[in-house]
PASTA domain-containing protein
Amino acid sequence: MRNGTKKVASERDQKRVRDWSRAKLTFVGVVFALVLTGLWVRAGYLQIVQGPDLARLALRQHMASESDRGERGQIFDRSGRLMAKTVEFTAVSVRPKELTDLDAAANQLGGILRIKPAWIKKKLESTKPFVYISRRVDDKASAEIRQANIPGVYLEAEHGRSYPNRHLAGQVLGFVGMDDQGLEGLELSFDDWLAGRRAKYAVQRDASGRKLYFDAQGRELQNLRGHDLTLTLDSQIQYFAEEELAKAVTANHGKAGTCLVVHVPTGEILAWANYPFFNPNASRNINPKEGRNRSALDVVEPGSTMKPLIIAAALQEGLVKPETSFFCENGKFKVGVSTIKDTHSYGDLTVSKIIRWSSNIGAAKIGMLLGPKRLHAYFEKCGFGVPTGLPLSGEGKGLVRSLKDWQPIDTATVSFGQGVAVTPIQLAQAFLILANDGVKKPLKLVLDPPQAAADAAPVRVFDAEVARTVQRMMREVVHEEKGTGRIAQIEGVEVGGKTGTAQKASPTGGYGDKYLASFVAFVPAETPQYLVMVMVDEPEPSHYGGVVSAPAVREVMQKTLSYLGHAPDTGRLAKGAEQTPAAAAVADGQAAGGKGSGQKTDILPPPVIDDALAEVVAVPPGLLDSPAIPNFSGMPLRRVVEILVSKGIVPKIEGQGLVVTKQSPAPGAPWPGVEKNQEFVLWLTRPS
């Protein structure tokens, strides 16, 4: 009985155990069912509801949109010579958060880059994730940094601008910034044309961020390079212009200068020089004044170079003829309360001689004959008061006051270049009209891409015969006796030109004691092919265009003609270029050794008095009969030589220049006798 009871109880316990196991199974099944249901719901939610957003996030993680910019186009001269190009540089950058030792990194970079470590450390302490330490690093420095293997320091390749000819046409070319953006000159004016194009492309990356490939729209399929620019400049002629301009400015202790060479039939500018020079490669370390394109920006009074234009206007209006005579008031002419002066006491002068001898009074009377309205109209026709339209940013427009603001004296003074201001390039454009037989054609600086302004229709300003008449008058300036530009003579070539000596306005009002010496010339004198202009600002001690600027024009013309295969026949002299007897005597005496010289000395060409040179330069009355040696300081070499040769003295010449600065024997000493074989030495203005 008792055994039976125990058996029943045991069966009940087993049943209870089996029932609990089933419950567990049921519970586990329910849990799994819920989990699976939750996962299914979550998966459905992620795929259906959040699917598009998550897909975009994944795409951003594995696909990136990057941008790139192509190389900047190159700049060439008319013959295909390279003037500006893009080269690859190295930039040094740092991710400060990756640095382990700021001091060590700053010291290492400072030693390699030659930068103060304290400045570098300050950059490294930046909270920015990325900073540049130096850009455009040379190959040697980049190799040292790469070898140092400093954690957090990176080298990146980038493109920058290089100018292989250094300062050649530097102000015209301009320069670019660190981000390859044009900032000045043609680099700025043609920035859109030269700049490489930007493009965006898709890049696929792996989990580590490494680039895998470009998509079908990638960079390999695009040409991002900028367009090239071709100029009218000729690098060789540009070199000639800069070389001679530098000599003219330094030899005459000038402040600055400009030189332009233009091909007359086409209006193409072959050379555009400014001094002091500007090297765009070092644009960050140069005085901004040196980068100033003076020919396009500086506004100056043209002085006597205005006279051929005024006379052309009077001839065009039928008011005068070349032989028409004007009384030049013996050097002083009163207009209202003002007095106009000539540096010589001229009486009656023909129109031709007014240009040849550069009479202010004669030009003023011709201008007054024209009248203010016609004068102002011809200024506009010649392009004064408005930019030339050349593709240069910030070009000056000059200063021509409104006709209603003119006073009676203004009509007289503007006729010899006072009271009106122009840029050098405007003056060259005006003379191009005379050289082109009276037709105004636009100046050209760029050949490719073609410029719409350069293709503007020509406009006739003067009749052809009027322009040719003025050309012949300008030839007399160079080739006739007492012409103010005789030093510009070239053997075998007839040259036409005009001198200018403009007194500069004083900052305190009126005119000061500083001058602008200029000379504009055509070659050949009639039917010109080339126009050359040189201006020297504030030359000393001589400030006359025929003394300061004409020699530079002559040298530029000679070298240009030779380079272009038009060298003159030097076996003969150009008409009117014969030596004066005094200069010939000196040359002969020194070729033979000269009395007392002991050696052969080269003699400079006979200097020329420009713009009716000041009275101090003329030979004072009674000088030849003086019992003692006079003071020759400040006098032109030619005048002094004539005096000495008349006394039977062949001087020894020391230095270079056209004006005597010192002499031996000293002033006041007795004239040396020829039989005593005493040496007479003249020192000329030397280059600085």
Notes: The domain at 235-563 is CATH 3.40.710.10 (Beta-lactamase). DSSP finds 21 helices and 23 strands in the chain.
